[in-house]
Amino acid sequence: MNQKLGEFEEIVLLFVAAQHEAAYGLSVTKAIEDELGRSVTMSSVHTALYRLEEKGFVESKLGDAEGNRRGRRKRIFVITAQGKTALHEARDARMRVWDMIPDFVMKFV
Predict the structure, then answer these.
(1) CA angle 53–74–64, rounded 5-degree value
(2) What is the pTM of this model?
């Protein structure tokens, strides 16, 4: 079954890939806010991460307990081969649409 990415899932998956083996709920939330200037809740990011895991686009594991987490361990997310394929397909689809736009439409004044 060929799973599709929603827009927000795509953004979350991009940041999981960018944070290679260091992505967790708070780090992805902060990256979306800092890099895209988009206000998001950590619960919406966690929901997307778990949806991505159900679709097979990411895998997770518990990291080490560190710092002031009171013994709680972070759930670290990593992109899977299926997730990489989904990102490539999403990028290719967007580029096909961009290529359909006549050059004069996108010229700046």
Answers:
(1) 120
(2) 0.86
- The answer as to whether 106 is a domain residue is no
Q: How far apart are CA 4 and CA 92, in angstroms?
A: 13
Kindly report the number of other CB atoms within 10 A of residue 65's CB atom.
11
CB 5 within 8 A of CB 16: no
Domain that holds residue 86: 7-101
Based on the structure, what is the number of domains in the chain?
1
In a domain, 107, yes or no: no
Q: Are 64 and 57 contacting, i.e. CB atoms less than 8 angstroms apart?
A: no
**Which candidate, 64, 58, 102, 51, places its Cα nearest to that of 80?**
58
Tell me: the pLDDT tens digits for 37-93? 999 999 999 999 999 999 999 999 988 766 655 667 889 999 999 999 999 999 999
The enclosing domain of 73 has a CATH number of 1.10.10.10
Asked whether residue 108 is domain-assigned, the answer is no
Q: Is 107 helix (H, G, I), strand (E, B) or coil?
A: coil
